[in-house]
Structures are given as C-alpha cells and as structure tokens.
Design a protein that fits this description.
Helices cover 44% and strands 14% of the residues. With 437 residues, the protein is an alpha/beta fold. The protein folds into three domains: 123 residues, Response regulator (Rossmann fold, 3-Layer(aba) Sandwich), CATH 3.40.50; 152 residues, Rossmann fold (3-Layer(aba) Sandwich), CATH 3.40.50; 127 residues, Helicase, Ruva Protein, domain 3, CATH 1.10.8. α6 runs parallel beside α7. The N and C termini lie far apart (63 Å).
C-alpha cells in the first residue's frame, strides 16, 4: 500500500512541529508549510493524500487557498481544516464547498488521525466507518470527546430527546474501540418486564413454555464489546435491581439456569428521560443511576444545532435512491431551517423520504416537505406554540403508524419510545386508526 503523503499548513511552530512529528510516527510522509503561498505552490506540483490546513494563515487564508485551488486546473485533494471558535462559520462554508471536515482547536491528535485514515489516500484496511456526527459546534464537541472515552471502559450515559441520534453516538464510540468487537442494543422501553429479562439474560431450554432451546442473552452476546441499554429510563423497577447486580458483579444467570456466567462488556446507556428527576420520583434506582452515569454525553436537539439541518438533509438526499438528484429549493431550505423539529433527526429523515416518494421532478419544494404547514402557505390565524407542536407531533405519529401498518410495538420501536408512552400520546392527541381527529 502506498504511503500516505500529508500536506500540513500551519504557521504555529509548536503545533505544526507536533503534528508533523506525529504524522511521521504514524508512517505518513508530511510536507509542512508555514504559509499559504508555499503550500499552494507545492499542491500544484505534488500529489497528496490529504491536506490539513489552519484557516488563519499569515499571508493567504486557508479558505482563500482552498478556493483558489478549486478554481485552478489542479485536482484538489481532501481538505481537513483546523480552526478556532471564531472561524466556525468559515469552516462550515468550506464544508459546503467540498472540504471533508474541520476540527476546533484544541483537539486530540488521535481524532485527526482517525479522520485521515478514513480517506481513500490514507485508508487503513479493516478500519470501521466513523462518519462525522455533524458540523454544528455542539456536535463537534461531542465528537472530540469520544476518542478519550474510547481509551477507558467507564460507563457512559447518553442523554437527549427522541430522534437526536443517541444510538449513532454510541456506535461511533464503539467503533473507536474496535468495530470487530460485538455491539448489541436493547430498547428497555420496548419490552414487558418478563420479555426484557429474557432478552438481556437469556434462558435455558425448558425454562418456560416455548423455550425449546437455550438462548444467550444480550449480556452474553456483548462479551468483549459494547452493550447499549437504550431508553434505560423506561426500565421497570424490578428489572433495575437485576441489571444493577449484573453490572456490579459482571456475571449473570440465565432464566431457568443455576450456573453463573461471567460477562465482560462496555456499558453505554441512553435515555430521553431526566433520570435524576426519576430518581427523586422513586421511578429509577439511585444506585443504578450513579452506576450508569459515570460520564454523561448530552446530544442536543436539532433545533439547537441549526447548522446540521441542511447538512443532514444533503446527506439523506445523497443516499442511494432513485437517481434523480433531488435538490431543495431555497424556499424549502428556509422551511427546513424554520421548522421546530420535535422529532429531531429522525423526523428530518422521514420527512425527506416522504418527499422523495411524492416528488415528480428533481426539485423539492416546501409544499412537498410540509404540505399546508409550510411557512410559504397563505397566512392563517396562528396557533399557540403548544398547539403548533402538538399538531406536528400528531401528524408525525400518524405517519409513523401508517408506515408500520398501525402495529403499536413496531411503531414505538421506530419512534424510540415505549409502547405505553405511544398509547398515552395517541390518547392525548386523539389518534385513531381511521385518522380522524
């Protein structure tokens, strides 16, 4: 495999020297330039696997360098930019023009190396896909934390509203530890207590009616890898006792079994609930709370990271589809940015999937995305904020139910909530099978 050659553009002596040395230690060739002009001259003569460039340079900014290269006849290699908080808007503009990624200073060198090794010119065989989580500063902060967490086995609690991408964060953390290891997940709100126990602990043959053979539970299946307990806040109290014991003792006993089985795994829990409040309400064990909440990661809702909305939309539309090259109109982009996104990333994805089906041409308009709820629709008396959000929530749940053939459990799984929670929402929002309000 050819050695990856990096073009490093950094005027800071300490940082540039440290990165150049690290690249060399990783077996990469590195040409270090301290000015944009010298780097531009080299890029016009030499082929590189990747460019790592500061945005603020003494003579020619990283942005100007990149745009000048794009306008020339030279094929631009993949660019990863480094920037301070004050230049995030510049970095986001560069991503829209085709740059691969950006990192906020200070950052862990391992994070940069991981991104470089994902590129075709610097690819390591067998490396897992560790796609970026988002371009908003809040998501970059989450991403920058993960390499440090991957170096320990401490339990991690991921919090955030339904649909924000908590499982995606868990998968990325797992991949940084070694994707060849198993990753198993259980939605604690999707099962009754008895089914959840069988799912987690497994059972022996004949343990109950229908147990025609022994089954390994998720605790066993996660051996040496990662166990994600999703929506742990919905776990019944009696199950919390059993799970706490398994986490503490690192051994389980299958249902109907007598012999303890040792288990070893990285525990990640996720929830949309306020676990501390549930502890105070007596709905969640305090000892389990402290056991799973060693390190907490909050994934912000989509409305708090608007930079990600159009970026995610472009990625969803670029996914394999019907080949029409669907494009959002400017009005559609404004409508997406103005939407409150109660269903977060999951809602955005489903909205674009629906628009893809309904579109008769390549352009996606606000009407295709939102129908009569588009911001471009004729003015009507405004609802209260609560009524507006409830209307979106109702429409979204109805679409989810229709997509799953009105199967309650399957729909609850899709929405990332418990069956009980879905029934309560359907009752409150007066959702019936015929769709009448």
């Amino acid at each position: 495999m050819p050695v990856c050659r990096i073009c490093l553009i950094e005027d800071d002596e300490i940082m540039g020297g440290a990165l150049a040395l690290r690249f060399e230690l990783e077996g990469m060739d590195c040409d270090w330039h301290k000015t944009g002009r010298s780097a531009l001259a080299a890029l016009r003569k030499q082929a590189y696997g990747a460019v790592v460039s500061d945005i603020a340079l003494p003579d020619l900014s990283g942005e100007a360098l990149y745009l000048e290269l794009l306008e020339s006849a030279v094929a631009a290699p993949p660019f990863i930019f480094m920037t301070g908080h004050g230049a995030v808007d510049q970095a986001v503009r560069l991503l829209k023009r085709g740059a691969v990624d950006y990192l906020l200073k200070p950052f862990e060198p391992d994070l940069l190396l991981g991104k470089l090794k994902e590129l075709d010119g610097c690819h390591e065989a067998g490396r897992a896909d560790t796609d970026v989580l988002g371009i908003a500063p809040a998501m970059r902060a989450v991403e920058s934390l993960l390499p440090r967490l991957a170096q320990s086995q401490a339990s991690v609690l991921i919090t955030g509203e339904s649909g924000v991408g908590k499982e995606r964060v868990a998968l990325k953390l797992h991949a940084l530890q070694g994707a060849a290891r198993p990753f198993v997940a259980a939605n604690c709100g999707a099962f009754s207590e008895s089914l959840l126990e069988a799912e987690l602990f497994g059972h022996e043959k004949g343990a109950f009616t229908g147990a025609v053979r022994a089954k390994r539970g998720l605790f066993e299946q996660a051996e040496g890898g990662t166990l994600l307990l999703d929506e742990i806040g919905d776990m019944p109290l009696p199950m919390q006792v059993k799970v706490l014991r398994a986490i503490q003792e690192r051994q389980i006993t299958r249902i109907g079994g007598e012999t303890p089985i040792a288990v070893d795994f990285r525990l990640i829990a996720a929830t949309h609930q306020d676990l501390k409040a549930r502890v105070e309400q007596g709905l969640f064990r305090e000892d389990l709370y402290y056991r799973v909440n060693v390190i907490q990661i909050r994934v912000p809702p989509l409305r708090e990271r608007k930079e990600d909305i159009l970026w995610l939309a472009a990625r969803f539309l670029a996914a394999p589809g019907d080949g029409r090259g669907l494009v959002l109109t400017p009005a559609a982009e404004r409508a997406l940015l103005d939407h409150p996104w109660p269903g977060n990333v999951r809602e955005l994805k489903h909205l674009l999937e629906r628009a893809r089906v309904l579109a008769s041409g390549p352009l996606l308009t606000p009407e295709l995305l939102f129908g009569d709820t588009s911001p471009d629709s004729p003015a009507q008396p405004l609802d209260t904020l609560g009524e507006h959000l409830a209307g979106h929530e109702r429409d979204y749940i109805v679409r989810a139910l229709q997509s799953q053939g009105w199967q309650i459990q399957e729909t609850a799984n899709l929405l990332g909530i418990s069956r009980k929670n879905l029934w309560e929402k359907m009752k409150r929002l007066e959702i019936k099978r015929d769709g009448d309000r």
